[in-house]
Amino acid sequence: MASFLTYTTLFSLFSTFSITIPAAFSQQFAEEIATMRLEKVSHLHFYFHDILSGKNPTATQIAGPKKGHFGVTMMVDDALTEGPEPSSKLLGRAQGLYALSAQQEPALLMVMNFAFMEGKYNGSSISVLGRNPVMHAVREMPIVGGSGLFRYARGYALAHTVWFDGKTGDAIVEYNVSVLHF
To answer: Where does the signal sequence lie (predicted)?
Structure first.
């Protein structure tokens, strides 16, 4: 009987904590978000350097089939620069992965963070998750989130290949990004 009473008392005590603590947290959190409702649109322009060759490649294959290209998956830590030249000012890094996800045409699944290291966006990032049909002149991919100044971000990125080396796979891609954030 004593153990039943102890169990009932503990159950009642812990049930009370689990109900009251989240309610207070949720209420306080909602008030903080309500004060941040001034949305801004930022337009970003930079160049993505995807280097598969040389002594210091910034992209490397981590998975793929024994024959063909469908399923090839690359992990990247690519430079994002102010201009198309590799020596241009470094603005940040593209970190994540892309995979050849289509069998009929060259198209990539992009899962990537653009982490900025320069200027007012230093320490902030935006997240891209979408399809990149690489043979199209301009590709549109969604911005699905972000951090720092880009918290709660949403928007789109337009990509245009500036240079591609068919032998090595190296590429420089121009990005124009419109992102809505708080």
So the answer is: 1-26
